[in-house]
Amino acid sequence: MAALLPAEWIKNWEKGGKSEFVQLCRALSENKNHDVGFRDIQQALYELAYHVVRGNLKHDQASNVLGDVIEFREDMPSILADVFCILDIETSCLEEKNKRDHFTQLVLACLYLVSDTVLKERLDPETLESLGLIKQSQQFNQKSVKIKTKLFYKQQKFNLLREENEGYAKLIAELGQDLSGNITSDLILENIKSLIGCFNLDPNRVLDIILEVYECRPEYDDFFVPLIESYMYMCEPQTLCHILGFKFKFYQDPSGETPSSLYRVAAVLLQHNLIDLEDLYVHLLPGDNAIIEEHKREIVEAKQIVRKLTMVVLSSEKTEEKEKEKEKEEEKTEKPPDNQKLGLLEALLKIGDWHHAQSIMDQMPPFYSTSHKPIAIALCQLVHVTIEPLYRRVGVPKGAKGSPISSLPNKRAPKQAESFEELRKEVFNMLCYLGPHLSHDPILFAKVVRLGKAFMKEFQSDGSKQEDKEKMETLFSCLLSITDQVLLPSLSLMDCNACMSEELWGMFKTFPYQYRYRLYGQWKNETYNSHPLLVKVKAQTIDRAKYIMKRLTKENVKPSGRQIGKLSHSNPTILFDYILSQIQKYDNLITPVVDSLKYLTSLNYDVLAYCIIEALANPEKERMKHDDTTISSWLQSLASFCGAVFRKYPIELAGLLQYVANQLKAGKSFDLLILKEVVQKMAGIEITEEMTMEQLEAMTGGEQLKAEGGYFGQIRNTKKSSQRLKDALLDHDLALPLCLLMAQQRNGVVFQEGGEKHLKLVGKLYDQCHDTLVQFGGFLASNLSTEDYIKRVPSIDVLCNEFHTPHDAAFFLSRPMYAHHISSKYDELKKAEKGNKQQHKVHKYITSCELVMAPVHEAVISLHLPKVWDDISPQFYATFWSLTMYDLAVPHSSYDREVNKLKVQMKAIDDNQEMPPNKKKKEKERCTALQDKLLEEEKKQLEHVQRVLQRLKLEKDNWLLAKSTKNETITKFLQLCIFPRCIFSAIDAVYCAHFVELVHQQKTPNFSTLLCYDRVFSDIIYTVASCTENEASRYGRFLCCMLETVTRWHSDRVIYEKECGNYPGFLTILRATGFDGGNKADQLDYENFRHVVHKWHYKLTKASVHCLETGEYTHIRNILIVLTKILPWYPKVLNLGQALERRVHKICQEEKEKRPDLYALAMGYSGQLKSRKPFMIPENEFHHKDPPARNAVPATVQNGPGGAGMPTSLTINTVRLEEGTTEETDKLKEKSQGVVKVINKTVNATPKVTTSNGNSASNSKIIKEKDEKEKSGKEKDKEKKDKTPAATPEMKALGKDGKDKPKEERANKEEKAREIKEKTPKSDKEKEKVKKEEKASKEEKSKTVVTIIESKSTAEKEREKEPSRERDLAKEMKSKENAKGGEKVPVAGSLKSPVPRSETSESEREQKRRKVDTHSSPSHSSTVKDNLNELKESSAKHYINHTTPTLSKSKEREVEKKDLDKSRERSREREKKDEKDRKDRKRDHSNSDREVPQDSTKRRKEENGTTGSSKHSKSESPSDSPRLNEKEKEKNKSKSSGKEKGDSIKAEKMEKSSSGSKKESRHDKEKAEKKEKRDSTGGKEEKKHHKSSDKHR
Question: Is the peptide bond before 816 cis (omega within 30 degrees of 0)?
Fold first, then answer.
């Protein structure tokens, strides 16, 4: 504070300081603000006096100036005394004596200004003594103590003897008189005063009597309250409180009970503020500490009860427990001491003094006071009164009368609520103090809930101002708090009151589910721990739930259901939590529990939904079993329960669906199981891989047929539940997001989730995700209206490019949209023009298709690279993806089957005597209606299919553009259409097979059916290996349908000629685009087609065996699944079936202990395979095995440049794999062990089967031994090697390059093939001419084999880059041509052909193929080896008898043979031509197949000079015969012992290269032997002729 007295004034005091000070004091005294002036004057005087104390001013100067200012204010002496008092205290503490002296001198100088009395009052006794105002300070102190004691501590003694009893009698008469007249409290007070004075009454006793009378006459508040108030002016304020305290004290004995009248009087006095609560509270018992202790004790007791209920008590202990409990209960029955605080609280609530009541409640633990029923009821009553006007206005239900409640008589009670805002201020607060004890008053509970409902109605109606909205928001949050803290806990304490539960649901259903679930969560996890009563209730509920669940069975569902219902009305969260925990452990409880939940209220169903979600989201539960390969059973049980319960009862689905969506967003796909179950149960859409073909067929029909014949269980009454599911999805906009999330999650399973998980589990999750997508999409397609669907699903390019939906899924979602759209457009056009002709209808349909699909054709272009559209048109792509089986074929047999079933049913109804007639009538009507529906649906589908086929007929010419090659076209078709879709669903698998057949039947330009089928069957290893379990099943279905078609064509020449004979799909010469001549010679004939089918069967066997031998879980499982699916059509050939059977048997033995699921699959397949055995046929019945005509000219098959896919020609030479190629296979065996592990190789990336496929490890052992044996003949080998200089390098090249073939080389090769095609002579005369020329130059050519090989110009150079097998084959063919005479095409042609080769080589190959087909299997398993060995031995013995002439002799023999057979040749001219075509195809196929190592065959033929062109020519080198016999024996030994392994790959390679040629000659002999053996019965004459020709030579 700034100094008021500057130092200058003090220095110049006499000159001007004094006058300045006086002027300041005058100014301050005149200040109108009294307080400020007073403080400033005090400060000015203090500063002046302080300068004196410090010695800056003389005391007489100060006293003079003080004398001048003293009259400025009346209270100036008092102010001065205050200043002296402060300075007295300050100077007495100082050590400087002089300052104290200055102070005393100042006071003495001013004594004339301040009176002695004031100074004695203010100053210290010691100071007074030093001033001489008192004689002795000690005496002064004693005197003041005596006076204070007399004043404050001595009681006034009334002389009670002087009191007269009459006075009290008159007093009571005065107070007890009739007060109804005009008697006022003032009048009576005057009388009382007179009585006190007259009869010497004690005023305190008079007050006591007034209170006593007031207690007895509580109705006269208006009289007694003013009386007491007036009377209190004569007493000390505390008197009334003390008297009441003594009254309460009187009743505090253990046996005493405070009367309610006393509580009421105290309450009224408190309400009128005649006493303070704090003053009275201390007089009441029990103390607050005792109350807190009691509350803690209650909590402990509650916990003990819980522990007892959860403890398992043995029977022996039970009796002791019961006795102890009885004793405790007896103790408890002793009445607790009176709680006066609660009594007062009750009285306050009854009279409506909420303010004081609240203060008392705040002193106690929460809900302690309201846990006493009287207080809870009193508070409820107060709330009733407060909400009455608002409730009457908005809360009373229509038609209800209700009993109005009158307001409280006193004016100080809380104001009644007229609006929601007032309700919040007063009532919500009261309800919070009530807490769970609102349960004592169900009527008030209902009123509060109804008010809540009315508020929510107002809250949700729009149109209020911003300020109001904010108020409403606050109110809403308060309402939620009340619900959480009061309504739900109170419901828990109500005894199974279903009406309250329904009433509460009326309000709850207006809340969004997020708020509801939040409330349930609080209720379940927190509320029950907040209060001892609720703790007990929770324990009792669990105990009761256990009792019911132990006894719940299918038989007693009703009584148990009623008990569950009763229990659930008040404590649903606890009950459902327990029930769900049981369901997770025992899934057989699901059905009885679902049935028993029919007695629940709507609120309980909603709580159940919450509890299910909470159980699903439980973070402590593991979602996988301990083996980490399967989903936990608890999750499966919960999912199953979900489906059943949501279907049966009207439970809101939004929360559950949102939960699944959130889990997907978080990249977790386990919970899709729930969605799958819910859709399956609610919509009746089932996804299972176990569908029979009949069911699948039914699924291709209309909705009615699907429902009747497509599912396992009869789907009934799903209309309502599927509508509920649809509404939930649309209302919360979850339909499309769930689809997109599932589509994206499929890959997420593999690439995000799949990292640490077991492969088996990843596959399961992928399947679950995919199946749920298919099921969910199916549900949306069949339940959403066209508008809904089109509005929600974006166009295909947006789906794929923006939402990154995989193409298959995107089309799956869009497909129903296209169908809806087309049908609605078609209907519009039909209405516009009434034309009934079929042509008109078709035309309209095609127009509507064009309108709808044109934007789709545009949109799909962005999905793939521009290069793709060179081969297939966007229109074809869109057509393929937008159609379904429903569009392509009518399942007539399914419709007939279902109609017949209904007829049988109707007959059974007629025959049933017990059925009452009216029920019979109903059932028959139902069956008839169904029958009509089905027939109508069949008719409708038939018309639709005809329209679609017409549309396809028009479209087909623009489908396949084949700008590159037909091979490339097929690649694109398989890659972008067939393969992605055939594993999408079972129906799609059937669709794909059907579509391929349809494209063939439509005679689509540029579509090679043969190529397509060949690519599908040729190598299934990669595709099978990269499938999940369910995909494998679907892929199996696809192959099964493809095989079914092929088998139908194979079964009968008539069918083949009709369905394939003249079709462009079976052209074997693929000319340039634009020239697809229907030349009969270019078509594949029936017999060759049978060869091709055999090749396919062989390929399938080979791939299957390879997969079975890998030891990889996925390979084995998938191939077994595929094999099981294709069992009806494969294996058909006996030896292939036997090979499979042995391999599967081996799997059964190996996996029995290790992998039981594989064992089960293998055992299942093995059993089915055995049952199919009677239907298998020997190979020679499967395809004609006679050798082809000798003079057939080889026809080249042209495949166009750059074919990027699987083999294109279709010769059945793959079977030769096993004959001469053990060396190569072994060499490659080591290199390509992991060939199938490369699963990610796309299906269409030219799967070339390496020769290791299908070979067991025993090969290497055999070869090792063979090679060792053959080392002895190395010199001979060297000679042979000189003839084939490229043998060894080619061997190596084969080992290295056998897998891949660069595109350019193939391109060059194919161009050459085209040239040859043009140059190859066609007419018979030309052929004859050629033959003569060749005979003449025969000798020369035999000498210049190598020269010809080297002179191959660009063609040969190009081919040098290709894998060695091709080169070898080419050389081999040329050497044969040189070795032969008249049966050859011109050399020029043969050189330019991709694989030049004469007819003789064909027949030789034919022999090899037959040999293997009859006696061998691709698995190289031991049994087959033994068969081979026996054959080889016998044939070796047989052949030793024959002498084999040299090379030149064989040529002479050829010429003689030619003369002998001339006549036969002419008769076979036509046959030759056909044969040529067939051979050509076969040969070309073998090229691109990469499966036949041809170098061995070539070298063998070069070295031995054998031609093997006819049945008669068998040539062996004499020197080789005995060696051969030894080798055969050695080979037998090695095969029987075959458990040893080759030492090293390098060594093997060396040995192989040295011994290769020897083996080739041996193999030739074996072939000849087998051929001889086979023909021994049929061709004896020929054999005789053969011998004679030998002799002649």
Answer: no
pLDDT digits (tens, 9 = 90+) for 558-586: 999 999 999 999 999 999 999 999 999 99
Average pLDDT over residues 777-785: 85
Kindly state the percentage of the chain with pLDDT values over 70.
Answer: 70
Distances (CA, A) of 678 to 573, 580, 654, 1077, 1089: 22, 17, 12, 57, 50
The dihedrals phi and psi of 1177, each to the nearest 5 degrees, come to -125, 155
Whether the CB-CB separation of 824 and 887 falls below 8 Å is answered with: no
Amino acid at 365: P
Distance CA 864, CA 857 (A): 12
d(CA 997, CA 461): 62
Residue 705 structure tokens: 């047929």
SS3 1177: strand
pTM of the model: 0.65
Residue 884 contacts residue 777 (beta carbons within 8 Å): no
Residues 6+ apart with CB under 8 A from 538: 306, 528, 571, 574
How remote is the C-alpha of 630 from its chain's centroid?
Answer: 15
Based on its alpha-carbon atoms, the radius of gyration of the chain, rounded to whole angstroms, reads 55
The SS3 of residue 872 is strand
Q: How confident is the model at residue 1472 (pLDDT cuts 50, 70, 90)?
A: low
For the residues of 1021-1071, what is the DSSP string, one character each?
Answer: HHHHHT--HHHHHHHHHHHHHHHHHHHHHHH-HHHHIIIIIT-GGGBSS--
Please name the residues in contact with 1221: beta carbons below 8 A apart, sequence gap of 6 or more: 1251, 1492, 1493, 1496
**For helices 1364-1379 and 1447-1460, angle between their N-to-C axes, nearest 10 degrees:** 70
Residue 1294: pLDDT band by 50, 70, 90 thresholds?
very low
Tens digit of each residue's pLDDT (9 = 90 or more) over 709-734: 766 555 566 788 888 898 988 988 88
pLDDT higher than threshold 50 for residue 1335? no
**Cβ atoms of residues 968 and 1203 within 8 Å:** yes
Which tens digits make up the pLDDT trace of 469-516? 888 899 999 999 999 999 999 999 998 889 999 999 999 999 999 999
- Residue 464 is predicted with a pLDDT of 65
> Residue 1453: helix, strand or coil by DSSP?
helix
Closest CA to 1118 of 676, 1126, 1248, 772: 1126
Residue 995 confidence (pLDDT) above 50:
yes
Least confident range of 326-330, 383-387, 451-455, 1322-1326:
1322-1326
Taking residue 1581's Cβ as centre, other Cβ atoms within 10 Å add up to 8
CA torsion 1055-1060-1061-1063 (nearest 10°) is 150
Helix, strand or coil, per DSSP, at residue 1408: helix
β partners of residue 1177: 1133
Cα 1559 from Cα 1276, distance rounded (Å): 12
Buried b (16+ CB within 10 A) or exposed e, 1366-1400: bbbbbbbbbbbbbbbbbbbbbbebbbbbbbbbbbb
| Most distant CA atoms of the chain, gap in Å | 181
**Residue count (the chain):** 1593
Mean pLDDT of 110-134: 88
Cα–Cα dist 29/40, whole Å:
9
**For residues 1101 and 1413, what is the distance between their CA atoms, to the nearest angstrom?**
12
pLDDT at 825: 81
Residue 1067 — φ and ψ, nearest 5°? -70, 135
Residues 1076, 1065 contacting (CB under 8 angstroms): no
How far apart (Å, rounded) are the C-alpha atoms in residues 25 and 1579? 158
With H, G, I as helix, E, B as strand and everything else as coil, classify residue 311: coil
Q: What CA–CA distances, in Å, run from 829 to 149, 816, 851, 887, 1529?
A: 117, 20, 11, 20, 82
Torsion sign over Cα 1362, 1363, 1365, 1368: positive
